[in-house]
Amino acid sequence: MTPAKGKLYLVPAPLDFACDKLAPLRHVLPQATLDIAARLQHWICENAKSARAYLVRVRELQPLALPIQALDIQELPHQVHKKGDHQVDFDARPLLGPALRGQDIGLVSEAGMPAVADPGSSVVCAAHDLGVTVVPLVGPSSLLLALAASGLSGQNFAFVGYLPAQTAQRTQRIRELESLALQTGQTQLFIETPYRNEAMLQSLLEVLDAQTRLAVAGGLTLEDALLRSDKVAGWKSRRTSLDKNMPVVFAIGR
Amino acid sequence: MTPAKGKLYLVPAPLDFACDKLAPLRHVLPQATLDIAARLQHWICENAKSARAYLVRVRELQPLALPIQALDIQELPHQVHKKGDHQVDFDARPLLGPALRGQDIGLVSEAGMPAVADPGSSVVCAAHDLGVTVVPLVGPSSLLLALAASGLSGQNFAFVGYLPAQTAQRTQRIRELESLALQTGQTQLFIETPYRNEAMLQSLLEVLDAQTRLAVAGGLTLEDALLRSDKVAGWKSRRTSLDKNMPVVFAIGR
């Protein structure tokens, strides 16, 4: 008889990765998410060191099923991190071996919801193809919190990842996104490597129309959160400087 | 001296609205979200009856600051529900009076994150315009959970709301979305009034290419969750029937 398959749990992580101050886990994760994270013995992760650091924090609240060094922790290959799950020809099915043998697996990224603005969708896709049940757990997502808090439309929106780094291409892309946002009403969200936050803000203020609304959010769920939503004219008359270490979400809309 | 302003908290609600079985609140809401919901005395909501029912559930876990009948609960006008915050000329600033007088306010919708695929962004926007600090709290979002669990790209995606109800227009819109998804790699998410779920699935299976991937998710966080992600050819060879009462999220991608 074939044993019942294990499940693939999508386990959200707090949004304080690489931050000076940590958010208490109970502030950002429901009890059920903590309970499941504590009992899983097999993990697929973006980075094994960060996954262990997360589990150390879970262990401060409740006992883990196994000592951390005894957990089975597999990392996604570097090419998946770098290019995105859907841009590379990566077969994630071998990572799901434990589930085929009846063991539950956790998928975790360094911050927020795995497979959303983060690696992992190839693993989820492979689970569907293998008939492994996928269970997304509740937790924080920087994109979702930024969108809700932006005051921009959440009834029609897009997340487009990173914009081009090269100036002329970036300017053109900003114009494209603004035009989409103004013409269709679709809020456009994107991110930037934190050390380029200020350069991105500068480009946005140079390129966008004075009446376009720009929201910037970072460190949501943390005490020193940054959240500002204003027309470009308002940003220009009073600048907010962006931390070069803080991942932020940019959103434009009308 | 002007008193310090109150804050606007975005308070997520569980995803079991109008469902037979309820999710235990602790499964879907972190302790900090429950703590803040329990102490707020002023609310802005999609529907007052649902907001009270939510607070009754919170009260089962911890005492509220005031009896429910003593809470100040303001409803968003019907036009905002029906057409969307950004489609009507609605000034939400008067709703934020308590915050200007130093009182914190909670914004809550019937299910999930307020202002995401739900009314509320006009209130958030008004808060920014009035200098009222906006604090999004962590909780479930059907869109985000559906996206993460779909196996489709979460690094480039859009939520486009409802598709047209009329057949010819809907067919055209489905073709447009498929073409966007396949050409740009941008996952396209949308929703439908639950009683039309089956008709929507039928249209999708008729219109989409056999190799396009279609994911359908409903009741995530509940025991009887529906989650299937498969190529259209797979859906056609094995049909899943959709509950006519369950709100579902549809997603297409490559």
Based on CA inertia axes, which overall geometry of chain A fits? elongated
Write down the domain tally of chain A: 2
The level 1 CATH classification of the largest domain in chain A is: Alpha Beta
The percent of residues in helical segments of chain A reads 25-40%
Structural summary, described in words:
Two copies of one chain form a homodimer. Chain A is α/β, with parallel strands linked by helices and 254 residues long. Chain A has two domains: 8-136, Cobalt-precorrin-4 Transmethylase, domain 1, CATH 3.40.1010.10; 142-253, Tetrapyrrole methylase, C-terminal domain (Methyltransferase, Cobalt-precorrin-4 Transmethylase, Domain 2, 2-Layer Sandwich), CATH 3.30.950. Chain A contains ten helices and ten strands. Chain A has helices at 25-28, 31-39, 48-59, 78-83, 97-100, 121-130, 142-150, 167-184, 197-207, 232-237, and strands at 8-10, 42-45, 72-75, 105-108, 134-136, 157-162, 187-191, 213-218, 226-231, 248-253. Chain A has a five-stranded parallel β-sheet, with helices on one face. A five-stranded mixed β-sheet of chain A has the order 6-7-10-8-9. In chain A, a hairpin with a 7-residue loop joins β8 and β9 (226-231). Chain A is elongated and about 65 Å long. The model of chain A has no long low-confidence stretch (mean pLDDT 94).
Write the layout of secondary structure elements.
Two copies of one chain form a homodimer.
Chain A: E1 8-10, H1 25-28, H2 31-39, E2 42-45, H3 48-59, E3 72-75, H4 78-83, H5 97-100, E4 105-108, H6 121-130, E5 134-136, H7 142-150, E6 157-162, H8 167-184, E7 187-191, H9 197-207, E8 213-218, E9 226-231, H10 232-237, E10 248-253
Parallel strand pairs in A: 1-4, 1-5, 2-3, 2-4, 6-7
Antiparallel strand pairs in A: 7-10, 8-9, 8-10
